[in-house]
Structures are given as structure tokens and as C-alpha cells.
Structure prediction request, 549 residues.
Amino acid sequence: VRRKEFLVMVLPSVVLMTALLAVPLFQTVRWSLEKVTYGNPGQWTGLSNYSEALGDPRFRSALIFTVCFTLVAMVLKVIIGYALATVLNMVRRSRPVFLGLVLGSYVVPTVIGATAFSWLFDTNFGGLVNFFLGKVDVGEINWFSQTWPDRVMLMGNLIWHEVPFAVLILLAGLQGLPVEPMEAAQIDGASWIQRQRFVVIPGLRRLFSFVALISIMDGLRMFDALVPLAPDAVGLHNESIMYYVYDTAFREGSQNLGLGSAVSVLTLVIILILLTPFIRQTYKDVKVP
Amino acid sequence: LKAPTTFAELTAAAKTIQAAGKVKFPVALPLLASSDISTQYMNGLLSQGVAYTDAAGKTAALTTPQSEAALTALKNLAPFMDPQVTTFDQPKVQQQMYNGTAAIAIMYSGRMADLINAKNSKFSADFGFAEPPAIKAGGKPWGVVSVDGWSIPKNMKLDRDLLFQIMAASISAEAGASSLPAAYPSRKGLVTPDKVPYASAVQSTLADGATTPPPFPWVSDLQAATRPFVAQVITGELSPKDAMSKMQTAATAVLAKVAG
Prediction:
């Protein structure tokens, strides 16, 4: 009976996972080895899509940009998220109000938030940031057509949009920390910084890993924010891997679905490599001694 | 100032407007480096009777004198356009016109209906419309006929009669009338200056030989491979000659892949 119950409970998940993960993954790997056009069966081309992607300087540029941007964003998200969560944890009465304000940017769809964010820097649409920079006599900054200003804008948008997730997770962690070690540290004369360094941060270690893990996955899939914020992403070397896939595989009647699939498979491998330390740590944490 | 009929006149008009001091960058073109810039470059080629490839679509033809003339025409306008022009798509060009931060634009006629909408701009009543200029006097206009049509996959399994009726309805007199003034319908008799303020500009552009792009399916891949070099001409990173050489190499690689 228990075996039957087990199967009944597990079967829906297995069916869903197969339909939504295994089948698309299999199809992507298959297409990555074929030349695929709409309405025709694929033609086997071996590893040529992989060699084309890896031999394309544009792909290599997108890869380097995406990985570096993701890692910097991850560090910033953890630091800023932790700082904001700590401040919010100190607030008692109006915490829900502040939390609601912080979460506002997180619930806005990415492309809409990024479009609104881009208007802050676009004089055609008001350009509030440009207006204030003009007031303090900062020279004209071409946010959309210069590489580093564009990167700063992209990072600003990412932090604005995604830090609330880190805040939420770390705030929950802070509230769940046992009080005794903090009281003991206080009695022992530990300063605020020492308490953070030796009690709070080690206590939140798993949550930092979780935030970093999600942040890496989000960063490597970055796509829609680039459309309004980096309209010349290719020329500025600010192109993400997913934008490269879209641009080469689908855009304006392009039919390089095989190449797009090969890049998607390569992205999966990169995600796995970057996540390996976190997955190993999680495995160690949950492993029964 | 009169509406310019050549790029030399356009440059001269832009210089005059700029010198007047009211508009810093008078010319607005959709030259988004990841998209629209290819359309503008292609407009330049088509206006001179050539395209990305030879007539058969098999060999890249981007080192021609016409290609150089198209790139040079765009390059010469650079001092009169916003420094971020390679990030401007059609909506941003429209926005420049709404705001009055640009004085002359080249855009699809379908975008012009928004200009005359008083809700969009305080200048809505002041816009005038004209045929786009030619690269040289007496040449065809720097424009293209973009036809919104139907793409039907060859393995389509839908009811063919029903599909035909839907297509027929989309070009009916009722559909055409209700599309005004936002679109230029296939039934030309519906288009009159009282209903479509830019009608005469479109009609003279068509009469003067604006044409449709070649229908080869690999044109989009050619454009994607070559557009970064067009952008680099406008930003001054490449000369037209150097850009043409790089574009030819990139386009040849695309065509080799298509042939393979």
C-alpha cells in the first residue's frame, strides 16, 4: 500500500518534470547537433554549431561579459541585501511599510522596470538623473552609447530590481537567529561589528549561499533588461549570452536554431561550473553523518 | 528652408538649423545599431538600384560605389545627429520630434500618424511631410516600401479556405478605411490628403521608385552580420572603405553558410 501511495504522490511531479525539463533539454541537446530551420526536419551536423559558437569572438565577448557581470552583481547583491536586511531588522514599528517599499521594485516585471529605469538616464524621456548631474556640473554622460556608463546603468537596474529578494531572504534569516549567542557575545563585550563578523554572518552562511546561487542563475539568464538599457549591447561589448542566443537564433526571421541550442547547452555547462561550490556546500550541509 | 531633395541639401539645412542655435542636433534617424541601422543602410542601397547581394542573392555586393555612397551619406550626417544616435529606434526618433529636440527625421510613414496627434506633441500642427531625399540629384528617394504580409509555413495544417478568407478580410475596404491614418492601406483609393496628411509624401515616394527589399530569407542574417560595421562608420571608428571590406567578408561568410 505504501509503495502505491508513494507512486501516486510522486507520479505528477515526475510527469511534470519530464514534460517541462527532460523533454526540452533532450530536444535542445539534439538540435545543438543539427542544422534546424522552421518546418523542416533537422540535418545532423555534429559539433559544428559548438565550434561556430566557440569560434565567434562575439560569443566569447558575451560569455566574458555575462560571467563577470554576474559575479560582480552577486557580490553586490549579497552585501547590499545584507546591509538593508540588517537595517530593516532594527526597525520595529514600521517594518512592513519599509519592506513593502523595498519589495516594490521586485514585483515589477523586469522589462517594464528596466524601461522605466532607462528613462531616468534618457533625456528624450525626461532623464531625471541627467538633470541632476547637470545641476552639479558633471559633463554630459552618454549612458547608452558608452561602454562603462552603460554597465553602471545596467548594474544599477539589476541591484534596484533584484536586491529586494536578497533582503527578504536575509531578513527572514536574521529574525530566525537564536538570541542566546548574541546575548552571550554582548555580555563578553563584543562590539557590533564583532557580533556581525563572528555570530550573525556565520549564522546566515547557508542563506548567503542560497542568495548567491539564485543570483548566479538570474545573472546568467539576463536578457530582457538589456533591450531598453543596452540598445547597442553588441557594439559596447555589453551583450549577455541569452541576448546572443536571441539575436543569432530567432531575430527577424533568422533560423539558426541549432546554433542557439548549442549556446544554450554551453550556458547550462557554465551554470553548473559556477554553481558547483554552492551545490557541494549544500550537499555537505544536508548529508546525514 | 525647403524640404531637402538630396543629402547635400539635407546637410545644408541641418547646418542652418544648428547654426540658428535652437536645436543642437537637428537630424533624427532610427540608427539603432542592433536593428534599424540596417534598414537605413539598405534604403541607401535600394535607392541606388542595388542590394546586399547580386540579383540572384548568391554573392555579397557590399564593396560597390553605391555601398560607399550610402555609408558616406550616413557618416556626413553624424555631426547633426545626437551622439547616442546608434541607440535610437523609431520610437526614440518620434520622441525627439515630439519634444522638438530634432527638426528633421526620416521614418516609416506608419509612424507619422503619431506625430500629428495633439496628445503626443505641442508641435503636432506644425509638422510637414515630404519625400525623403536622394543621395544624388535626380536619384530615387532614400526609402523603402515595407509591406506587412502573411508568412504561411509550408507544413501548415489549418483550413486553407478559412485562412484565405481571413487574409481577404485583412485587405477589405472596411479594414483599409479603419487603418487610416496609422497605415497606408493596399487600397490606394482610400488614401486622400484630408484623411492622411502625409499621403502626398508617400505617393510621390512610391512614384519616384521606392522599392521593396529583396525577398531572400537570408537577408536578416546578412544584416545582423554587417550592421556593427555600419554603426562604426557613424561613430567614426571605421572609414566607409574599411567598413565595406569587413562587411563584405562577414556577408560572404553568411552566404557560404546558407549555401552549405
Summary: Chain A touches chain B at residues 38-39, 122-125, 142, 144-145, 231-235, 247-248, 251-256 (CB under 8 Å). Chain A has a mean pLDDT of 91. Chain A is about 75% helix and 0% strand.
